[in-house]
Specification:
The chain is mostly helical and 662 residues long. Helix content is 68%, strand content 1%. It contains 25 helices and two strands. It has a two-stranded antiparallel sheet. The longest helix has 45 residues. The N and C termini lie far apart (66 Å).
Length: 662
């Protein structure tokens, strides 16, 4: 590759270094932080996800918890160390996991227009949602006997999912970091905020004010988040609670320009998201990744009118909204084209891993050296035996297969698919992703592998789509373990935390899901994002679910081998050309991934943020900007979460204390 790649990735590699010692960050005091999150932040996160479709309050809850406990520790004449802060941060984030979050979607989908129109609603299994006639829908409660199979399946999936993710992710980290010595350039982004808080907690170790920049920068981001959050989220939250009709200065989730631009941009979805977080997000991620996404958007804007004129995007009509345009274009062309594009990305990622491995091996042979062997993990890091990792992998995979087989009456075709996904695809894609994360901070997925194998299994019905299938990409956990290592946190701290948190997460999640559902129908006018977007999500989900009904379906209409081939060839050629000319790897992935039906609503502000960061702040600050902006982003999320939590709290109080008789 060209020097451009190395230059950009080197900016991220130089941000932090691995410490020489590790400490246990778990203590029972930090458990109070998880309980604090479970009681105060979880309901706010659920509510804001329905209102605006954002999860900033989830990130904010972590920062709020850590800041609170740092201040309490100061007044108790104690200092929280970096590992303690990291574990507290992790506990707060894990407490926001909300495994029962899907229940709100389930109760909607089983009664949605899309599911009913496509003949899916009556075939949904009882472990997904009760039948539409259940009295639990009239009472708006999950605490009903009809929901017991659904709750049991969620608990099963949460337990085995966390077990596999933690243990198998660790095993892949050992391979990618300890054996292959990959740099993980994106890992320091998440660890910088922790360093900012640790710096503030340990003021005595700071020599001068210049060394305390992290806390100052974090505070600036927090102030920006507080100010913007008052207008963007607090106002609609309070007005919606008091009047039932949210007042929005900035439209949520976005402003839709598509009906007005359709006359000259045919079949193109246009609009703008007014969330300031998109601009900050564009500054955080690598510049060339944002440029690539913007180029992908431009290609879509140019391509769609051509496709419409050629009769490919035949369903679009003038006056269609963004949601309608996206759905129709998806059926006509982009469903298949995006499969091809994703295949090109997957092939490119796998090829990059193979080429890097071959280059390193050739270099070792030329130097007369043998391939590096694992000299063992750093002392005191809290590692476990590789044999235990293998045992857990087999135990989890077999358990998934047995439970799914029992639910599906041991259908032979489905059983063959389960063994293939569990013992062939999952380890392969996890290893490739672990290496790609370690090299360039990218994730690789083979698109629709689960869907394709289930369709080829020969099963007829929709129950197969809701099985606990043993397919996952554990390579993504490698970045988390790298962040843990960078902060000097012993791994056993994380594993002990997971054991303690499991019951807390389950109880808080189901309780608050039920409480919020009891307040209003979901979706409804009180929740603009859910009301605007959920029907689109349901319609898109039905495309795939209808593939196994045994009759003509939306899937057959949307699935086109020619368009898949075009997407694969076009994406592959672009990937190869950009590699040959030495384009930065972040630009390559951004462009190729942006060739699908890109929504402009978030891409444009993210690109603006990337330009501001690159040509203003980075010119003035140099490498320091790469250290500053992740901390600003963390502070912004904290400020947004704080102000919206206030609004959600007032909403809950008003609903509980002043119930109206109508």
């Amino acid at each position: 590759m060209s020097q451009k790649i190395d230059k950009e990735l080197e900016e991220f590699r130089q941000v932090m270094e691995v410490p020489s010692s590790f400490e246990d960050g778990f203590n029972w005091t930090s458990l109070l932080g998880a309980i604090f999150i479970a009681l105060l932040m979880v309901p706010g996160a659920i509510y804001m996800g329905l209102l605006a479709g954002i999860d900033s309050i989830g990130s904010a809850s972590q920062w709020v918890t850590v800041i609170l406990f740092i201040e309490v520790a100061k007044r108790a004449q104690k200092t929280l160390k970096k590992p303690e802060i990291f574990v507290l941060f992790f506990m707060a984030g894990a407490a926001m996991g909300m495994p029962f979050n899907g229940l709100l979607w389930n109760q909607f989908f089983v009664r949605s227009e899309a599911a009913i129109a496509n003949g899916i609603a009556d075939q949904l299994p009882i472990w997904f949602a009760p039948p539409a006639g259940s009295e639990s829908y009239t009472n708006r409660t999950f605490f009903h006997v009809d929901w017991l199979p659904v709750i049991g399946m969620v608990i099963f999936g949460t337990f085995f999912g966390q077990l596999a993710s933690m243990v198998l992710g660790y095993g892949l980290f050992r391979v990618a970091s300890d054996i292959e010595k990959l740099p993980f350039p994106m890992a320091p982004i998440g660890a910088q905020g922790i360093m900012a808080l640790a710096e503030d907690a340990d003021e005595k170790s700071v020599a001068n004010a210049e060394d305390k920049w992290r806390w100052r920068v974090f505070s600036i981001g927090g102030a920006i988040g507080l100010g913007f959050g008052m207008l963007y989220l607090l106002l609609p939250t309070l007005s919606g609670a008091l009047t039932g009709n949210p007042i929005q200065i900035f439209p949520i989730p976005f402003s839709d320009f598509t009906p007005r631009t359709g006359d000259y941009l045919k079949a193109v979805a246009t609009g703008m998201s007014w969330d300031l977080g998109n601009i900050i997000f564009g500054m955080v991620l690598p510049y060339f990744a944002m440029v690539g996404s913007f180029i992908g958007l431009i290609v879509t804007v140019v391509l769609n009118p051509v496709l419409e004129a050629g009769g490919i995007l035949k369903s679009w009509n003038a006056g269609d909204t963004t949601i309608t345009t996206l759905y129709k274009n998806n059926i006509d062309f982009y469903f298949s084209f995006q499969i091809g594009i994703a295949l090109a990305v997957a092939i490119g990622g796998i090829f990059q891993v193979i080429r890097t491995f071959q280059n390193r091996r050739a270099t070792s042979v030329a130097d007369g050296a043998r391939p590096a062997l694992d000299a063992g993990p750093p002392k005191g890091r809290g590692d476990i035996s590789p044999g235990f990792v293998v045992v857990v992998y087999f135990f989890v995979t077999i358990t998934y297969i047995l439970v799914s087989g029992w639910l599906i009456d041991w259908h032979r075709g489905v059983m063959a698919v389960l063994f293939f996904l569990g013992f062939v695809y999952t380890p392969l894609i996890s290893y490739v992703t672990a290496r790609l994360e370690g090299m360039v901070g990218q994730v690789v997925e083979v698109p629709f592998i689960r869907e394709a194998t289930l369709i080829m299994s020969g099963y007829q019905g929709v129950a197969v789509w809701f099985l606990p299938i043993p397919i996952a990409n554990y390579g993504q956990m490698c970045v988390f373990y790298k962040q843990c290592e960078l902060t000097g946190t012993r791994f056993t701290s994380i594993w002990k935390t997971q054991v303690v948190l499991f019951p807390i997460i389950l109880i808080s999640s189901i309780f608050f899901m039920n409480f919020i559902w009891s307040l209003n129908d979901i979706p409804s006018a009180v929740y603009p994002f859910a009301e605007e977007m959920w029907e689109l999500h349901a319609a898109n989900a039905c495309i795939m679910f209808t593939a196994t009904l045994g009759e003509f379906s939306i899937f057959e209409e949307a699935f086109n081998w020619l368009y898949i081939t075009i997407g694969t060839v076009f994406g592959g050629l672009l990937f190869w050309i950009m590699s040959v000319v030495g384009a930065p790897v972040m630009l390559t992935y951004g462009v190729v991934r942006g060739l699908g039906q890109t929504m402009p609503h978030a891409v444009i502000p993210q690109f603006i943020g990337a330009l501001i960061g690159r040509y203003y702040f980075q010119k003035r600050m140099g490498l320091k900007w790469r250290q500053y902006i992740p901390v600003v982003s963390a502070g912004f999320a904290c400020g947004m979460g704080l102000i919206t939590t206030v609004g959600v709290g007032i909403t809950f109080l008003s609903k509980a204390a002043l119930p109206l008789p109508f």
